[in-house]
Design a protein that fits this description.
Order of helices and strands: HEEEEHEHEEEEH
CATH architecture: Roll
Structural class: alpha+beta
Strand order of the largest sheet: 5-7-8-9-6
Number of helices: 4
Number of strands: 9
Number of domains: 1
CATH topology: Nuclear Transport Factor 2, Chain: A
Radius of gyration: 16 Å
Oligomer: single chain
Length: about 140
């Protein structure tokens, strides 16, 4: 969870109630329980909320993870205008002049945490599934 604190300013203490499980290039969060004794020979392939994937040189937080915990973020946030949001919804990149470090950023529209975008070489692209983005707009 140090990554979330370093990249987004989300304090590690937010995750004290959770365990982090990883397999290959993916990690999941699972709420801790007092009696979660699993059989030793049990092989778990997926559990809890999908939290991250390794994508190239970056860790990509899942949309749901950011929608749930993104309001704790103090940095690594790109505040979209309505026009910029419409551009991303169409699947088009935004050319941005930002001092933010390249990598994944939290996309916000007003007070709403929408999900994740990728900032690379002055271009911002959405990593929110089109179906999820359309659901957000239709509400």
């Amino acid at each position: 969870m140090a990554y979330l604190e370093e990249r987004f300013g989300i304090h590690e203490g937010v995750f004290t109630e959770f365990d982090l499980f990883g397999r290959r290039k993916t990690w999941w969060l699972l709420r801790k329980r007092a009696s979660s004794n699993l059989p030793v020979r049990l092989k778990v392939s997926q559990v809890g909320l999908k939290a991250f994937d390794r994508v190239g040189r970056y860790l990509k937080p899942s949309t749901w993870m950011i929608q749930i915990f993104g309001h704790h973020a103090t940095k690594g946030i790109y505040h979209l205008t309505e026009r910029e949001f419409e551009t991303l919804l169409k699947g088009d990149p935004l050319m941005v002049d930002s001092t933010m470090e390249e990598g994944f950023v939290i996309l916000r529209l007003m007070d709403h945490v929408l999900g994740i975008g990728l900032l690379s070489q002055g271009k911002l692209t959405s990593r929110i599934r089109r179906s999820e983005a359309e659901r957000m707009v239709s509400k």
